[in-house]
Amino acid sequence: SQQGEEDPQALSIQEGENATMNCSYKTSINNLQWYRQNSGRGLVHLILIRSNEREKHSGRLRVTLDTSKKSSSLLITASRAADTASYFCATDPIYNQGGKLIFGQGTELSVKP
Amino acid sequence: DADVTQTPRNRITKTGKRIMLECSQTKGHDRMYWYRQDPGLGLRLIYYSFDVKDINKGEISDGYSVSRQAQAKFSLSLESAIPNQTALYFCATSDLVAARNEQFFGPGTRLTVL
């Protein structure tokens, strides 16, 4: 079963609003990553946060990690219509022997102009 | 040119046919992966390979086989395709040396089994 579970499954907001997506996982991790997928296309890596980090920023993206709660959130500030996509969290478990990532089911974000 | 390419991009086939999906990369990465994506199920790992002589089963390997012909090439085969293998298939790579395990994805192959 998938380790990462994302919430909400779908999110619809207006352009300019902030979008927050959450990810929960089950086992201890080396890092957690967020990916974006435009409809029917390949995933693109957005940001990685290591297990010893609590917050990370990249442009309009802000990621937090709470290892005690085994959860992460992705915040997209001042959203744009072009941010419309599916967003996936992926965990790199500590038990991982070969770089396998465990992907969540994704959050489908729709930003209306 | 794209760093990770997949061929074909779209394929329609019939039940029982043998199908091969190919992946090539120019990133020089050691690790390569095959995933399938189904609506509402996210990505599930089929097979992965750390180098040319290494093949490992993933979460859902039944009905699939792979071949790592070279560092840059990783092929996925469906020996006898069935309708529930209709899905979007992705190849991905990552760099052992970088130790971040960030994965780089190809554009995907949309496979339909009738």
Main sheet of chain A, how many strands, which sense, barrel? 6 strands, mixed
Spans of chain A with pLDDT under 50 lasting ≥5 residues? none
What is the first-to-last residue Cα distance of chain A?
A: 36 Å
The beta-strand count of chain A equals: 11
Alpha plus pi helix count of chain B: 0
Percentage of helical residues of chain A?
Answer: under 10%
**Proportion of residues in β-strands of chain A:** over 45%
Sum up the overall morphology of chain B in one term: globular
Helical segment count of chain A: 0
Query: What structural category characterises the helix and strand content of chain A?
Result: mainly beta
Tell me the series of helices and strands of chain B, N- to C-terminal. EEEEEEEEEEE
Regions with little confidence, pLDDT below 50 for 5+ residues of chain B: none
Biggest interchain interface, per-side counts: A-B, 24 and 29 residues
Work out the radius of gyration of chain B. 13 Å
Proportion of residues in helical segments of chain B: under 10%
What is the subunit arrangement here? Answer: heterodimer
Strand coverage percent of chain B: over 45%
- Shape annotation of chain A: globular
Task: Explain what you see.
The complex is a heterodimer of chains A (113) and B (114). Helices cover 0% and strands 57% of the residues of chain A. With 113 residues, chain A is mostly beta strands. In chain A, strands 2, 4, 5, 9, 10 and 11 form a six-stranded mixed beta sheet that branches. In chain A, β4 and β5 (43-50) form a beta hairpin. By secondary structure, chain B is mostly beta strands. In chain B, 0% of the residues lie in helices and 54% in strands. Chain B contains no helices and eleven strands. In chain B, the strands form two sheets. In chain B, strands 2, 4, 5, 6, 9, 10 and 11 form a seven-stranded mixed beta sheet that branches.
